[in-house]
Amino acid sequence: MKDYLKQKLLLIGLMLFFYYAIELIAFLWIGFQPFPQSFFVDFIFILLISLVIFVIPSTKWSLIYMSIWLLFVNGLFVTNANIFSVYFELFTLEQFKLLGEATDILNLDYMYIPAFIVFFIVLTVYVYTIKFLKKKNLIQTIKYNKRHFLITLGIYLVSTVSLVLTFSIFNIETFGEFNEDVTLTTLKRESMKRYGLLAYYYKEAELIYFNIDSNDPFVMPEDPSEPSAYFGLLDGHNVFTIMIESGEEYAINELLTPHLYEMTQEGLYFSSHYSENKTNVSELIGIIGHYPPNSFDGENYHYSFDSSLPNLLNDDYETAYFHDNYPIFYGRGHVLEMVGFEALNFHDEIYHGAPRWEWDGNLTLDSETATEMIDLMFQTDDPFYYYWTTLVTHGPYNEGEINRQKFDDLGYYDLMDLAETTGDWTNPINNYDGDDKDELLGKMRYYQAAMMDFDRALGILMDALASSGELAETLFVIYGDHTAYYEKFNQIVMGNNDMNEPYYEMDLYSTFYVLYNERLSQAYMNDHTSHTIDAFTSPYTIVPTTLDLLGIQYNQNFMLGSTVFHDLEHVFYSNKLTTFFTDQLYSDNGEDIIYEKGYISDTYLEEFRFQSHAIIEKLQFINDYYRDNKEEKEN
């Protein structure tokens, strides 16, 4: 019996050792302290799992049980390390919903090989440790009997009950906070840092999959918006919102992208605009003004989007959405139908059922899509609200021979060469001195050509609006969903040759944003001296600004931002990073500052924390609203 207990304790100790070894590597990899802040919570979870070895009679099955758990934890490490190293993101259980999309766009350029190397090193060390212990007869097949099992079962039950009681009664502050924590998915990075891997994912699963809906629908508190000085200025105007895939502002150039450049000079150009979210999240933020911490399940549930731009405008406007992809991608078709667009124009509607492009760099040119879109526009005499998510700037940028030939035929590369010769454009990769400089120079030329093609598409649409007499009556809202982080161009442009800029360097997330309408520009310039606005902004300002200009008040509890014409400090919350930042401050939780740039006044710091806490509260309202008001769809 003594040898039997020793072996059980050895296996439990081995499991604890390798778990903490893996967690230590994972934490240091993604920039955490070596161990969770609430170490006792983390320890209780792994100990409860490890103690099961007591009631598994067979050594063989004990090893299998332990190996499965450690392989799972090692998988959590490599997944988080890979996603963080490439995208500065951490893995969430909700990403299982995106497995189809992930396999669709899988590309070795988006995978971080060192993470997989460490994964296999840890796996190898574990296997050889087991072999070594077997060789030394420390792990061996020991015959057990009913008495052995009853004793170990008793030890297991006493230990487990003691741990559960400890969890429930003692250290009330630590475990009480863990049990009551409803902001875990809102503060993903902060929560994982605090609770550890297993405790974090247990709590996330509880909140996402086992959170019981309230019997009473959650009623969003009313908080009417305050009109700005430009409230109703564009009452009855058309609105054309365009989200540029990977829209980097450094790709805007007077010679190469003349239409976009003109908008920055004659429209309202926001030079401190930041965004960092997945495309579908940035998209919905530009349509409804927010995105909940727990994503939508449009396939199985119906949600109410009464505050969305389409639903608010449908009575008086023609509303339509355009994007050259399939509606199943990110589940867009289900959600956007509920958002309220009268017409959803995906690939089959735009290209009449022709085969869709593949993820090989030969994405459909935006100029081709814009030409096809014209036939789907102006379906009524009402003013319109159109939303277009572009495509060709997505990447990858190292492939796509067909598109390279198209770019060449359209003269984009020749124009780039001319601009470089005359000094009107410089390839941002020129100052990079890595071994892969030549390859990245070519990728950047592809990206710049893709932006030139979007500019061509914009010209096609503007000409169509001019021909129909709608151009002067149209407000263009153009913004980027995120930077071109796939190739880490944003890091290179910042002058970081090793491409390992810390995730909290907020300039990594600077993107393009402009409002363009002649009447708006004239009114604004009556009060100001420049078309360029350097106040910090993000996509959260798009919906409230649009509604304010159209003369429509909104419930501020549905908006994580306000109109850009209010003199309020704005804070950006990233659903992807689950962090808060401006162009001066960065925080993982809205309270503790992990990075600041330049002089920060106490007043600014206090306002940053106030706005961050308000966002956390609003996100909880929003999550409760969608959770409690969703309706299950009939099969």
Please describe what this structure looks like.
With 635 residues, the chain is α/β, with parallel strands linked by helices. 47% of the residues lie in helices and 9% in strands. The chain contains 22 helices and 14 strands. The protein has helices at 2-29, 39-50, 59-87, 99-104, 113-135, 146-169, 172-180, 188-195, 197-209, 258-266, 279-288, 309-313, 332-339, 347-351, 366-373, 401-409, 412-422, 437-467, 489-493, 518-525, 542-550, 602-629, and strands at 238-244, 268-270, 301-302, 318-322, 343-345, 384-389, 474-480, 513-516, 532-533, 572-574, 579-581, 585-587, 593-596, 631-632. The strands form three sheets. Strands 5-4-6-1-7-8-2-9 form an eight-stranded mixed sheet. A four-stranded antiparallel sheet has the order 10-11-12-13. Strands 3-14 form a two-stranded antiparallel sheet. The radius of gyration is 27 Å and the shape is globular.
Concise description?
The protein has 635 residues and is of the alpha/beta class. It has helices spanning 2-29, 39-50, 59-87, 99-104, 113-135, 146-169, 172-180, 188-195, 197-209, 258-266, 279-288, 309-313, 332-339, 347-351, 366-373, 401-409, 412-422, 437-467, 489-493, 518-525, 542-550, 602-629; strands at 238-244, 268-270, 301-302, 318-322, 343-345, 384-389, 474-480, 513-516, 532-533, 572-574, 579-581, 585-587, 593-596, 631-632.
| Number of separate helices | 22
**What percent of the residues sit in helical stretches (DSSP H or I)?**
40-55%
CATH superfamily of the largest domain: Alkaline Phosphatase, subunit A
How many structural domains are formed by the residues? 2
CATH class of the largest domain: Alpha Beta
Give the neighbour order of strands across the main sheet: 5-4-6-1-7-8-2-9
How is the CATH topology of the largest domain named? Answer: Alkaline Phosphatase, subunit A
Q: Pick out the low-confidence regions.
A: none
Content of β-strand: 5-15%
Class inferred from helices and paired strands: alpha/beta
Global outline: globular
Alpha-carbon Rg, integer:
27 Å
Distance linking N and C termini: 56 Å
User: Main β-sheet: number of strands, strand sense, barrel status?
Assistant: 8 strands, mixed
Please identify, by name, the CATH architecture of the largest domain. 3-Layer(aba) Sandwich
Would you report the number of β strands? 14
